[in-house]
Amino acid sequence: MKPIGRCVSIFALHLMVSSVQSSVTKVLNISPQKGSRNGGTRITVKGVNFSKSYFSFGQGNENLGSKVWLTSLTSYPCDIHPDGSHQSQITCYTVPMPVGKYTIKVSVDGVDVMDTDYCPLTTDCQFTVTDANTPTIDMIRPASGLPGAFLEVSGTLVTTRYAANEPNETQTLILRVYFGGQKCELRDFEKDSMYGISVDVHGKGYFKCKTEGTYIGNHNISFLINNNYGRSLPSPALKQVHRNGIGMYQTFTEINGLSVSKGSRAGGTQLKITGKYFDETDSPVEVYVGDKPCKVLSPINDTEITCVTPEESNVLSHFSGNRGMFVFLQKGITDPFHLDKNEATVEHIDESTWSATDTGPHAIQMVGYFVPAYTGHYSFCLKAAARAYLYLSLSSNPNDKTLFFNGSVTMCTIETSNTVRLEADRKYYMEVYYGASTFASYVTVATILSESPYSQEMTGLAEHEKQEITITSATLQEVQALHISSSGNPGTISPDVQMITIEGSTLDCSFVLGLNGAYTGI
User: Fold this and answer.
1) What is the reported pLDDT for 330?
2) pLDDT at site 3
3) CA-CA distance, 24 to 49, in Å (whole number)?
4) Whole domain around residue 344: which residue ranges?
5) Nearest CA to 301 among 410, 365, 214, 384?
6) pLDDT score of 357 more than 50
7) DSSP letter for each residue of 334-369
8) 167: exposed, middle or buried (C-beta count within 10 Å: 0-12, 13-18, 19+)?
9) In what residue span(s) does the PA14 domain sit (predicted)?
10) Fewest 10 Å CB contacts: which of 125, 212, 280, 508?
């Protein structure tokens, strides 16, 4: 019976060891192993004994589920995609990271995977962020418009293939174009064709898409490419500074009509405004008649606003109107001061920049208002293909305008106007005069705010202030006075006497005694 008992004991121990080994979490490999600087790369981590549950809500459940990090000098989380994760696979999306190599790290239900239980080959657990795997957005046209408008996006697109479903492992696809919280659709489903897309052999190209949603405000735009790419990285200069924040594109409303065109000078007339996209998501709607607010009556809807008019405003010879500037263009002359507005064509622009090609000799006048977003000290400059002139009024009255800048520069760091303090939300009238006969003609009004709330990391239009600091000091030799004293009487002080005994054979040896660099003779 004893041999049988020993056999049973050994068998039970074997089962226990096997059970422990089978519960060890191991990471076998990851794919893909390259991705975008701006994140959005979908990584699949293969392994064994990953978490069974990703329900981590509620007290005591914070550590449930598998978690993934990409580590170098800094660790970055990889956002878990629960629907693509189970006991033998974790799916996650990378976040924006600098170019470089990263090592995958995994924890399961709050317990880190042991270093010895990662990929058999170290390179199978490495992820590399490169510029070559980063799609880009270099230009967006136009920069603003109504909801539902078309955009043209240029940059590094990589592919012309488009699919809005799950990634196809065998093809590189544009999965989705994001327009704020909505999407920008690439395909015309009625015609079953793309609105427009083209890519050259270097991956550079453009696509056209139709915006969705009715939100009025600032939008960021990006697109996502599967496999070893990810989310697009916009050019920093595309992040425009608006009065209500930063965005790559801005939507605005449309006014179609008014219920009445006349009313009492004392005010009190109910005015019904019809249009589209009257959106109050970010802030209540404001209506102005002349330069005074028209009291809005609640409720409003997407297409109709009713307000009560104010009393008559001061008689103004010039009304600011809505957003943008007017451009008067006359061909055949280059002197903008002799432009005849009766002969000129009129164009409305939504930015303080105008450009044209192959127009021959021409002259323009730009007319509009500058409304600062912040109170502060501003300076102005003109970027132009030829000499241009900026007239600015420190009020809304055109009659107060003075010459503020003349010339043409490529960068406003070269030359600017004098600095002037302007107040937020006030309207300052301005005019620009420009004439040229160049093939590629352009003029842009640029402003510089000395004290900006935005940093270089938030928009490419901001620059960090650079200061050169020189620190000097005078070097003086330290002088110390030492006073040595003794508590004893100098007359009674006797030298220290020491006796040194040397034992052993000394027939072939010579001895010297030394103290603090002073030595006896041999």
Assistant:
1) 95
2) 45
3) 7
4) 325-449
5) 214
6) yes
7) --GGG--TTTSEEEEESSSEEEEES--SEEEEEEEE
8) middle
9) 320-463
10) 508
Among 79, 112, 132, where does a domain finish? Answer: 132
Closest by alpha carbon to 434, among 385, 368, 399, 401?
385
**What is the widest separation between alpha-carbon atoms in the chain?**
134
Residues 120 and 144 in one domain: no
Indicate if the pLDDT at residue 63 is higher than 90.
no
The residue type of 259 is: S
Please choose, from the candidates 255, 187, 181, 253, the residue with its C-alpha nearest in 3D space to the C-alpha of residue 220.
181
Rounded to an integer, the average pLDDT of 222-235 is: 96
- Count of domains in the chain? 5
Query: Please, are residues 408 and 387 in contact by the beta-carbon 8 Å criterion?
Result: yes
State CA 192 to chain mean position distance.
35
Q: What are phi and psi of 404, to 5 degrees?
A: -110, -30
pLDDT of residue 13: 40
248-267 pLDDT, tens digit each: 999 999 999 999 999 998 99
**What is d(CA 224, CA 154) in angstroms, rounded to the nearest whole number?**
14
| 96 and 33 belong to one structural domain | yes
Q: Which of 114-128, 169-183, 202-216, 469-483 has the lowest mean pLDDT?
A: 469-483
CB 354 within 8 A of CB 385: no
Q: Indicate the DSSP class of residue 312.
A: P
Report the C-alpha gap between 52 and 328 in whole angstroms: 68
Q: Could you tell me which of 275, 276, 272, 247 has the C-alpha nearest to residue 261?
A: 272
Contact 388, 406 (CB under 8 A): yes
pLDDT digits (tens, 9 = 90+) for 304-354: 999 999 998 766 667 777 788 999 999 999 999 999 999 999 999 988 999
Spatial separation of the C-alpha atoms in residues 179 and 419, rounded to whole Å: 37
**Do 80 and 158 fall into the same domain?**
no
Take residue 251 and report the two structure tokens written for it.
């939507």
| Number of other residues whose CB lies within 10 A of the CB of residue 323 | 14
- Phi, psi (5° rounding) for residue 125? -115, 20
Per residue in 92-124, pLDDT tens? 999 999 999 999 999 998 899 999 999 999 999
Query: In this structure, are residues 43 and 30 in contact, taking their beta carbons and an 8 Å threshold?
Result: yes
User: Are residues 149 and 240 located together in one domain of the fold?
Assistant: yes
Cα 173 versus chain centre, distance: 25
153/204 same-domain check = yes
